[in-house]
Amino acid sequence: ALPISEMRRMEAWEGVLCEFLRGRATGSSVVLQDLLGKPFLWLENGLLCSEGQLVLLEDSAMTPWGEGSWRVDAVGVNGGLALVVTVPQPGPQGQTLSQNWYVRFAEAGDKFIAVSQDDHRRSAAGVSEEIYKSLQRRLLLSVDLEWCRSANE
Fold first, then answer.
1. In the beta sheet, which residues pair with residue 41?
2. Are 87 and 99 in contact (CB under 8 A)?
3. Is the pTM of this model over 0.85?
4. What is the pLDDT of residue 149?
5. pLDDT band at 68 (very low <50, low <70, confident <90, very high)
6. What are the residues facing 58 on neighbouring strands?
């Protein structure tokens, strides 16, 4: 217990909001079959707006830039999965160039990080639609609570 000198009176209530999302058991690793057909939002320029989707198909990948290809690079540390995704990129004078991305999925298979192998200044994050919607809800709730708090001051 706190000494009386350290006790403070609470003027406003605070709470904890929990949201439970489906996931994998601790210690399990991502299985490639679980990723096939699952849409992931590609977040390269910011976390609020997606540039498009990455969807791994059996023999190709749908990317924000069109159809590409993928291959397994390695099963990473802690069960993550690393892929190399080759995607078409618009080039000068209507040419189509390809770009290789190193994509590493988290152990739960619900998010990834990506780094361009051709331009290391470019990186992206990706999350499943379920995770993205959860992030948006938390952001809107946070903004709403902050607005309510400032309106009461």
1. 53, 127
2. yes
3. no
4. 65
5. confident
6. none
User: Which residues face 72 on adjacent strands?
Assistant: 83
Residue whose token pair is 């080759």 = 86
Share of the chain above pLDDT 90, in %: 7
| Mean pLDDT value of segment 74-83 | 60
Close Cβ partners of 113 (under 8 Å, ≥ 6 residues apart):
103, 104, 123, 124, 125, 126
The token duo for 53 is 């989707």
Q: How far apart, in whole angstroms, are the C-alpha atoms of residue 59 and residue 114?
A: 20
CB of 21 closer than 8 Å to CB of 61: no
The alpha carbons of the chain give a radius of gyration, in whole angstroms, of 21
HSE toward the beta carbon, residue 107, CA cutoff 13 A: 9
Mean pLDDT over 48-66 rounds to: 84
